[in-house]
Specification:
529 residues; alpha/beta; seven-stranded mixed β-sheet; four-stranded mixed β-sheet; 17 helices; 39% helix; globular; DUF6734; DUF6734 domain-containing protein
């Protein structure tokens, strides 16, 4: 089975700012294409990765950005312009129908951080997930409101809909027949559709609800990568913060792609997993006039360990730098390193690509901790940083919030701390004494994107490993917000049926507990209204 992604645009490269794919801007749109395609190729090196595209897509993604497509297929997407402009789904159907072998089409805002199961790829019809309950009711409502002249029989009997974040299967010929049926449906109902006030849901109705009914009528089984969805809220699949323990596949929803937090996390992911490609793409985007958020890091070349040299041995700051975790991991990997404020590997160790990633993460983490520790006002020659993890269970005893905090207080973070991004949970290695074989193996297995706060508490560095909710709240309180506004925003990240009862109360008190943790760290300021 081949993997496919589809690109078309109604604009040329000279109007690059208009090619945004629903993202916050065109820069994040192209970075999303890079992350999605690079993940697919990394996890499936044995499968051909094809781009179905127009001339603009070929130039941008293959010729210019050099994304890892094995081949491409130019399609006449302009022929779909014979249909009304608000019906864009026929362009996707043109791509689906163009294949003469089993295929799987993956949206450019779908990120597969793990490999698709080989048995799953042998199924007749593959989709991201089925949709039932509220989602199915929504499509039936749209269909009824359209007041059409001709409604296909398969649309009348659909017992579910699907999400087409990924779609394909071994029954590739079905997509050709389905595309013809949709084209006939549109031609037969163009006048009715033009007059309708319910055009917004038309494209997903055709691709997801009609397609499901068509498969059912043909007696084909639909297999979902993810469990069936009972509602239309997909925020939980957009949360890059939940990697790697809660989710392994991410699909950014249309609304989420406008969220600055998601855009930045997506870019972090590209930078962490594919640093060489990231900085190469960044320089190319800069030539198109698309500004970059992240500069190339100083001291480390591409955030890897192949360095031109080490710092001077006369540096006073070096003498107070300590590397217990980095040294421990290097020894476990049997890698020789030269540690100062920066370090380099020997030639043999440079070949250990996977080991290098692991060592890279702990070095950057520990360097951040060292630099933060040097800002203490009272240092001595014998100074050595010590660390403690926050015991969340003790927060109630340590922090007391004002009773009227929910209504009469606002909160904003202050700049007396530092946040480190890490690929592993180094925060769980509280001291070098705890670095045993079991701890090391556990940390290797828990790979993801973690954010760790370093803050000061008297003579200690306090280390706090943020979870997904912490990351959301932390990003929001860069602005001064009321607790109630903060709670209302956080609640939008949860489906309505996450909790059985007292949904608002649970979210409110959960947010308050996070505020307690940040108060204990001393990284926020409370303001009375």
């Amino acid at each position: 089975m081949k993997l496919v992604q589809t690109f078309w645009s109604d604009h040329s490269v000279t109007n690059i700012d208009l090619i945004n794919g629903g993202w916050l801007n065109s820069r994040f749109h192209l970075l999303s294409w890079a992350l999605s395609s690079l993940l697919l190729k990394r996890n499936h090196p044995d499968k051909p990765l094809e781009l179905a595209c127009d001339e603009t897509g070929k130039y941008l993604l293959i010729d210019f950005l050099k994304l890892p497509y094995d081949n491409y297929k130019l399609l006449p997407f302009n022929t779909a312009a014979n249909h009304p402009s608000y019906i864009w789904i026929t362009k996707l159907l043109l791509s689906y129908a163009s294949h003469d072998e089993p295929f799987l089409n993956i949206d450019s805002d779908f990120y597969a951080f793990t490999k698709f199961d080989s048995l799953f790829l042998e199924k007749d019809i593959i989709v991201q997930n089925k949709e039932e309950g509220k989602a199915l009711f929504m499509y039936k409502t749209v269909l009824n409101n359209l007041d059409l002249s001709i409604i296909p029989s398969f649309a009348q009997s659909a017992s579910c809909s699907v999400n087409a974040g990924i779609i394909g299967g071994t029954c590739y010929k079905l997509f050709k027949d389905f595309a013809e049926s949709i084209n006939y449906f549109i031609q037969s109902n163009t006048d009715y559709l033009d007059r309708s006030d319910y055009k917004d849901g038309l494209n997903t109705l055709l691709e997801q609800y009609f397609f499901s009914g068509y498969c059912i009528e043909k007696g084909l089984q639909i297999s979902g990568l993810l469990p069936a969805q009972q509602h239309t809220n997909y925020h939980h699949l957009s949360r890059l913060e939940d990697l790697p323990n809660n989710i392994t596949f991410v699909h950014a929803t249309l609304g989420a792609k406008k969220d600055t937090n998601l855009c930045e996390l997506m870019e972090y992911r590209l930078r962490l997993h594919f640093p060489d490609e990231y900085y190469s793409i960044l320089s190319k985007l800069d030539s198109l006039g698309l500004s970059k958020n992240f500069q190339r890091p100083t001291g480390l070349e591409h955030e890897q360990f192949i360095l031109k040299g080490k710092q001077s041995s006369n540096s006073t700051s070096e003498e107070t730098y300590h590397w217990p975790r980095t040294s421990f991991v290097a020894n476990k990997l049997n890698i020789k390193i030269c540690l100062t404020n920066s370090f380099k590997l020997d030639d043999q160790s440079k070949k250990a690509i996977n080991s290098k990633r692991l060592l890279q993460s702990v070095f950057i983490y520990e360097r951040t901790l060292n630099k933060f520790s040097l800002h203490y006002p009272h240092k001595s020659a014998a100074y050595y940083w010590t660390l403690r993890l926050i015991n969340i269970q003790l927060l109630d005893e340590l922090v007391t919030l004002p009773k009227e905090i929910g209504e009469n207080y606002t909160v904003k973070r202050i700049n007396n701390h530092v946040v480190a991004d890490s690929l592993w949970q180094w925060a769980h290695m509280a001291s070098i004494d705890s670095c045993n074989n079991t701890c090391y193996e556990d940390i290797k297995n828990y790979k993801g994107l973690y954010q760790i706060i370093f803050a000061k508490e008297r003579d200690k560095v306090v280390e706090y490993l943020m979870d997904s909710l912490d990351s959301i709240i932390y990003s929001l309180i860069k602005h001064q917000l009321s607790i109630r506004t903060l709670t209302n925003y956080v609640s939008t990240f949860y489906p309505d049926n996450t909790f059985d009862i007292n949904f608002d109360s649970i979210i409110y008190y959960t947010v308050l507990n996070k505020i307690k943790a940040f108060c204990y760290l001393g990284i926020i300021q409370l303001y009375k209204s």
